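Please, structure for the following, as tokens.
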Amino acid sequence: MEIQIDSHTLERAEERGTNKKEVIDVINTGFSIPAKYGRIGKAKIYDFRQQRHKKYYEQKRVEVFYTIEENVIVTVTVYVFYGKWEV
């Protein structure tokens, strides 16, 4: 299925510490998470092992929310959380 990444999603991705490649990877291989307003949510945990805003984090969790319109996945937004999760 075609994936259309909205410009809002790309702006948020850059601000929050992810990129287009990871957004697509989350959609294709992430696990399902709850979403509101008829949207679909997926998340994936990545090894990070570096600093962000002067604090060290082991991992980051990227969450992507999207809709499906006429067989096209259209992203709505992306969130990134930093910390350590059990996989």
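The first strand starts at residue 2 and ends at 4. Residues 7-16 form the longest helix (10 residues).
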